[in-house]
Write a structure and sequence with these properties.
This protein is mainly alpha-helical. It has one domain. The protein has two helices and no strands.
Amino acid sequence: MDAIQAFIVGLIIGVIFTWFDLPIPVPSVLGGILAIWGVFIGWVITRALAGAL
C-alpha cells in the first residue's frame, strides 16, 4: 500500500512540476534513473542475502 501511495504522490508532483513548467526533481537522463534503480536493487539483494526480507 505504501508503494501505491508513493507512486500516486509522485504522479501528482510530476503533474504539478509540468503544469508550472518547472524542472523535474529527478534525473532527466536514463543513466541517472538506472543508477537509482541500481542502488535500490543492491539494497534488496543485500537484505535478502542477510535474511532480513
